[in-house]
Amino acid sequence: MDKLVHPAILQRDAHHEVFGGYGDIQGLGYLACDVLDCHGSVQLDDVFDVVEVQYLGGHLTASEIQIAGDGNVKGEAFSETDITVTGSLFAGAITSQGNIDAGALHSHGDISCWGSLRANGEISSLNGEIHSGRWIATKATIYAAKYIKAGESVVAEKGINSGDDYGILAGTTLRRSLWATQAFISAPGKPKHILSGLFVEGKKLRHIDALEKKRSDELDWEIPRRLKREAELA
């Protein structure tokens, strides 16, 4: 169980001294700081903008999560919009009502997002499933103890593995006639337990990024957010 837990969390759990108290952080606005160290939970109505989450002993909830370095969250990391982490994010569960873009993602439970799931490093769910409304792509590996599900494609340049009694589902939001171009599964070798989608060799993260730049359609939840951004800039 400790394999996918960041050393900072294990060390802090084993340490009996209380560094910052047991309290929570709650705010109607945003939180911005350099290094966060909190034994409780953080709940915000606005953006969580931190350079590094050294330790968060509870849950993290915000309208948007931005971490410039690594993030170590013992509970769930939940964002009403996007999650952007330059380094690695370690959490009990990861949920985004938008897109996730990270250096690497590691979770004890589920990793779920309404939009796309992108990483340069490993994406792994030790005990749960990985679910994306659009695509999942990484330069490294994808592992889930249960299902790997994507509305479109699944790409892992170094390999894809799902649970033995589960499987990989791509193209769950698309017609089968579009699988070859928009709902492919790509890895160095053909993964076991492909339940939907079409295996295609040689696809990379850069191919997914190129396709995304050409995208013209929007999901239902993206339209009001775009209109809000345009109104704020007007």
Characterize the structure shown.
The structure is a single chain. With 234 residues, the protein is mostly beta strands. The chain has one domain (2-233). It has four helices and 22 strands. The chain has helices at residues 7-14, 179-182, 205-213, 222-233; strands at residues 25-27, 31-38, 42-44, 47-56, 60-62, 64-67, 71-79, 83-96, 100-107, 111-113, 117-119, 123-125, 130-132, 136-138, 141-144, 148-150, 154-156, 159-161, 168-169, 184-186, 194-196, 198-199. The protein has a 22-stranded parallel beta sheet that branches.
Question: Keywords for this structure?
Answer:
22-stranded parallel β-sheet; globular; 234 residues; mainly beta
Number of helices: 4
Q: How would a crystallographer describe the biggest sheet?
A: 22 strands, parallel
Total strand segments: 22
Low-confidence stretches: none
Shape: globular
Helix-strand topology string: HEEEEEEEEEEEEEEEEEEEHEEEHH
In whole angstroms, how far apart are the ends? Answer: 50 Å
Using the CA coordinates, give the radius of gyration: 18 Å
Strand composition percent:
35-45%
Q: Layout of SSEs?
A:
Elements: H1 7-14, E1 25-27, E2 31-38, E3 42-44, E4 47-56, E5 60-62, E6 64-67, E7 71-79, E8 83-96, E9 100-107, E10 111-113, E11 117-119, E12 123-125, E13 130-132, E14 136-138, E15 141-144, E16 148-150, E17 154-156, E18 159-161, E19 168-169, H2 179-182, E20 184-186, E21 194-196, E22 198-199, H3 205-213, H4 222-233
Parallel strand pairs: 1-3, 2-4, 3-5, 4-6, 4-7, 5-7, 6-8, 7-8, 8-9, 8-10, 9-11, 9-12, 10-13, 11-14, 12-15, 13-16, 14-17, 15-18, 16-19, 17-20, 19-21, 20-22
